[in-house]
Design goal:
Elements (H helix, E strand, L loop, with lengths): L5 E8 L2 E8 L6 E5 L13 H4 L4 E5 L19 H15 L4 E5 L3 H11 L4 E6 L14 H8 L3 H5 L7 H9 L10 H11 L4 H17 L1 H11 L3 E6 L7 H5 L1 H4 L4 E5 L5 H17 L5
Parallel strand pairs: 3-4, 3-5, 5-6, 6-7, 7-8
Antiparallel strand pairs: 1-2, 2-4
Helix pairs in contact: 2-3, 4-8, 6-7
């Protein structure tokens, strides 16, 4: 099998430079990979080589993350609607007419917004711990929900701990039976970007705006019911943030959804990329071009 190169590119979308990884044959079916907090397209570094022989893979960094521009929150409005606007801009600029999406964590509300706005473009959806149901939210969300209800400076400051090196590493290790499988550059690189001047403030703004995603759960669920997209949920079942009932809930609106659980935590691709990659390839093979 010929090894496909991965290109590391930047393009201007409106006023921001958006970084993305691109790989695979130009005429192959497209899959768009959307990352979560606090990571970047780097989280897909091991999955892309499993997909890029048969698929054209695009994996951007959201504004404020990775190698995309991260203006200070005094210069840019960090909301999920705004993040989506720039990813939609990238989709339009790259001329993507039909594609599957893989979503994870923050990438889920961005990807689901894109699907709702462009149902004709979506060939299928893969959700790896990408929530769309209230029952998927664990007690780990309580401090953030408190900030939604009472957006005081005290409640904002209480969330700063979630951007520390200890908590970033804990996100990767919680629920993992063999921590030696977690590459240290994963959480180290995430922390490097979190530690940039002004980055914590923009992350706190996104914590606050996550309430808008929960408010949109009914709209996402209506899209699932109405459009019945092909759907695969690949879920780390020890995730401290997004619980297994959130994965099972997709079958309420999507009776044909495939739901697979893996004995691992939030960043399931760090420990189970081969198993999940195999499942994704089986799923993608069933989709229309």
């Amino acid at each position: 099998m010929k090894t496909q190169p991965v290109k590391y590119l930047k393009t201007k979308v409106e006023d921001l430079n958006i970084f993305y990884r691109e790989s695979g044959p130009a005429d192959a079916p497209v899959i768009l990979l959307l990352h979560g907090f606090p990571t970047s397209s780097h989280m897909y570094r091991n999955l892309i080589p499993l997909l890029n022989d048969k698929y054209h893979v695009i994996a951007p960094d959201l504004p404020g993350f990775g190698y995309s521009d991260a203006p200070k929150n005094t210069e840019f409005t960090y909301t999920f609607d705004n993040l989506t606007k720039y990813i939609q801009g990238l989709i339009d600029q790259l001329g993507l007419k039909r594609f599957a999406i893989q979503v994870f964590d923050y990438g889920a509300p961005v990807g689901y917004r894109i699907a709702v706005a462009n149902p004709e473009k979506i060939t299928g959806i893969i959700s790896q711990n990408g929530n769309a149901y209230i029952e998927g939210l664990s007690d780990g969300w309580n401090p953030i929900q408190k900030y939604w209800a009472e957006p005081t400076e005290e409640n904002r400051n209480n969330l700063r701990v979630m951007t520390t090196a200890e908590l970033t590493q804990r996100q990767y290790l919680t629920g993992v039976s063999d921590p030696s499988l977690i590459a240290p550059e994963s959480y180290t690189m995430d922390q490097f970007f979190l530690d940039r001047e002004g980055n914590v403030e923009l992350q706190l703004d996104l914590f606050k705006d996550y309430a808008s995603n929960v408010a949109m759960y009914p709209a996402f669920q209506a899209y699932f019911r109405d459009k019945q997209p092909a759907f695969l949920a690949a879920w780390g079942d020890k995730d401290p943030f997004f619980l297994p009932p959130g994965a099972e809930a997709f079958k309420r609106d999507l009776p044909d959804a495939i739901v697979k659980f893996y004995n691992t935590g939030h960043f399931a691709l760090e420990t189970h990329v081969n198993e999940i990659g195999e499942e994704i390839l089986k799923f993608l093979a069933t989709l229309p071009r």
